[in-house]
Design goal:
With about 120 residues, the protein is α+β, with helices and mostly antiparallel strands. Helix content is about 30%, strand content about 20%. The chain has 2 helices and 4 strands, in the order ααββββ. Helix 1 runs antiparallel to helix 2. The radius of gyration is 14 Å and the shape is elongated.
């Protein structure tokens, strides 16, 4: 079961990255929901409140009292390829976190989504 989990989180990351690349106007919430659907596809539960975030030095602190906009989060309407406040491309990490609560196991895979 653990070997399957290890394979599944890696494959799900590849599927998520492909989905991101195939959808140039994708919003953070759309990628979150896709990552969540991958957990179901592979027979797991999605184990986290987010499915990724911006790369940078504490980017979540740039928007006061905002805990969703700069994350791959179900409530974020940010277009992921939109430019940041300096007119630069945003860089993202995709996080895949699958769990099986009944067996008390989980797997996590994260990697750069954009370069």
């Amino acid at each position: 079961m653990k070997h399957k989990l290890q394979q599944d989180v890696g494959q799900a990351f590849a599927d998520g990255k492909r989905y991101f690349n195939e959808n140039p106007d994708i919003k953070s919430s759309e990628l979150f929901h896709y990552a969540h659907s991958l957990a179901q596809k592979f027979g797991w539960e999605f184990g986290g409140p987010i499915a990724g975030d911006l790369i940078g030095q504490f980017p979540h602190e740039r928007i006061a009292d905002d805990k969703v906009t700069l994350y791959v989060h179900p409530d974020s309407d940010l277009t992921m390829r939109s430019l940041d406040e300096k007119g630069q491309k945003r860089r993202w990490i995709l996080e895949i976190h699958f769990v099986d609560k009944a067996h008390q196991i989980g797997g996590f895979y994260e990697e750069l989504l954009t370069l």
